[in-house]
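Section 4.2 – Deliverable D4.2 (structural model, holo form)

The reporting period included a commitment to supply a predicted holo structure for the target in complex with NAP. Inputs used:
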Amino acid sequence: MRQSTTKGAILIATGPWDPAPWAAAVRAVEPDRPVFVWPDLPDPAAIRYALVWGPPEGLLASLPNLAAIFSLGAGVDHLVFQEGLPEVPIVRVVSSDLTRRMTEWVTLQVLTHHRQALAYARQQAARTWKELAQPQAADVRVGIMGMGVLGRDTAQVLVRLGFRVAGWSRRPTTVAGVEAFGGTDGLDPFLARTDILVCLLPLTAETRGILAMPLFAKLARDGALGGPVIINAGRGGLQVEADIVMALADGVLAGASLDVFEEEPLPAASPLWAAPNVVITPHAAAVSAPKELVPLMREQMAAYEAGRPFTNVVDRAAMY
Ligand SMILES: NC(=O)c1ccc[n+]([C@@H]2O[C@H](COP(=O)([O-])OP(=O)(O)OC[C@H]3O[C@@H](n4cnc5c(N)ncnc54)[C@H](OP(=O)(O)O)[C@@H]3O)[C@@H](O)[C@H]2O)c1
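Output (structure tokens):
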């Protein structure tokens, strides 16, 4: 027998993250709703909503009355590569808080490379007073792969700073002041006009390993920064780290900023830690903040229980 849709229980399963702030945020906005934190699951049939990050394989399929899966992050690769996922909507995070955090991180990295912050830090450590030649933002071509919620917001800020910005997505995206490229045919011309490549793609079967030597070799080599730079905050699975290390050593790339890695935490033995002109952050570009995101999930549950459809639902065939 199917449960009533009202006040169904919530299951929280946060994988490697601390579940306590998520449970506290849910209980704060939903005091009347039963909330369970995996592995505490006395009655799987009571669960209507699962709020998850990297749930154990098979957990979601064991919930017979599940109405929706809420991903605790914007990316859903932690779900869509799982076998046997139940056929219920997967709702992903779209929030102004997360978007602003990502725009801050990408802008910081673009400016770090554009304004030669790493070279100045090396000079400071050597007590060297030397002004470096500084191109204008208008001389630097930024290309953003992935013009979704995050890519579009980042593009607008970079346009405002005066960079020449282009975006590449499956379907060309219209953003004022941004040159649009789309699909497989659009990739090479997009790369050929790009000095700083920003990757905000989701990890899917199509995008896995896209940031590799053949792509790096197609980036512009006549830019004002003396060589192309890559910035990846999408997912580690998008990049081939051995190729990044080789490209930095051979001068195919002049620098990189990486927030995500094939293996996280990045192993201490990775040559990326000591690679030249590289910024490494520990998957910290845009954290999911429970107190910002849980109220949005609650609104979605309330809308669903009032008979309206979920929004920000993942296209399972496209995997994002
Ligand atoms: N490092 C962090 O802290 C952090 C935090 C949050 C998110 N992220 C990552 O950021 C990613 C993007 O988030 P979002 O909210 O902007 O996602 P989104 O709104 O779903 O946008 C995804 C974009 O990628 C494009 N795309 C997907 N597959 C493609 C392909 N095969 N070829 C070309 N373009 C393709 C889409 O094209 P269309 O526009 O044509 O659909 C869309 O423009 C997430 O999936 C996650 O992995 C990282």
